[in-house]
Amino acid sequence: MRRRIIAGNWKMNKTRDEAVDLVGDLKESLADVGDVGDVEVVVCPPFTALDAVREALRGSNIEIGAQNMHWEDEGAFTGEISPLMLKNLGCVYVILGHSERRTYFGETDESVNRKVKSAMSNGLLPIVCVGETLEEREAGKTEAVVVRQTKAALAGVKTNGAERIVMAYEPVWAIGTGRTASADEANRVIRIIRQAVAEVFNERIAQEVRIQYGGSVKPQNIADFLGQPEIDGALVGGASLDAASFAAIVKPR
Ligand code: 13P
Questions:
Q1: pLDDT tens digits, residue range 109-135?
Q2: Distance (Å, rounded) from C-alpha 75 to C-alpha 146?
Q3: At a CB cut-off of 8 Å and minimum separation 6, what does 141 contact?
Q4: How far is CA 35 from CA 26, 60, 222, in A?
């Protein structure tokens, strides 16, 4: 049985002080979640708030993740953050290959792959994002794109421990638009991603790897996605910036 995982990707939102306020509220709303719901909860604030958020979450079951990292442990890479730095702050997860990174910051299948390998060898668990653009979808390329991105991201990753990798299917056209893939369609694409994971590693690992859906997830539609057999959770953007809405997404109804 795969344990569900709901992660909030705050993107470039919340100052340190705002972040502390938000997780204070969240901690209260979700105090019972570790007991009543078999769901893992992660928040991914900006780098500048990670330390304060970690402190504010002490005593809760909520884990922290980063939104990106460099693949090197240290060195002359002005403006970058290394896996060692994230690990040292108490990060458990790191989002890698988000479409905003691919689109605006030139990330490629190759750089995402380097980061995934580095995260794994540094004991950080990657949440690897894949997904097609609207143009690719309309051209009937959804499957080819997610299979290519998945296989490229995972190439050369050691099989040992690979079951702890998290994948996120985020159709680019559904991010921040209020449009979502239908739950059926998301389930279908996620099954294809799982098959690609099996081809890289093996069937056992593919059955253990958790695959989230992301793209305009809200309290109103989360149940549809979680009702699908292949969907193991959600990567939530906008709706994770408000404690009440994120809590409503996390809490079992
Ligand atoms: P929204 O939930 O705002 O559509 O963002 C999704 C996302 O990109 C999460 O990584």
A1: 999 999 999 999 999 999 999 999 999
A2: 32
A3: 132
A4: 16, 11, 20
Ligand 1 centroid to Cα of residue 172, in Å, is 9
The yes/no answer on whether domain 4-250 falls in CATH 3.20.20.70 is: yes
* 6 alpha carbon, distance to own chain's centre: 8
Entry pTM = 0.97
Where does 77-197 show beta strands of DSSP type E? 93-96, 125-130, 166-169
Is any ligand 1 atom within 6 A of the Cβ of residue 219? Answer: no
Q: Report how far apart, in Å, the C-alpha atoms of 20 and of each of 9, 26, 30 are.
A: 15, 10, 15
Q: Is any atom of ligand 1 closer than 6 Å to the C-beta of 235?
A: yes
Residue 252's pLDDT is 64
CB distance 236 to ligand 1 below 6 Å: yes
Pocket mutation for ligand 1, best pick of 6, 11, 44, 95 (most atoms within 8 Å of C-beta): 11
The residue written with tokens 């997830």 in the block is 217
Question: 126: Cβ below 6 Å to ligand 1?
Answer: no
Tens digit of pLDDT for each residue in 44-75? 999 999 999 999 999 998 999 999 999 999 99
pLDDT band at 136 (very low <50, low <70, confident <90, very high): very high
216 CA → ligand 1 middle, Å: 6
pLDDT of residue 36: 42
Domain boundaries, the chain: 4-250
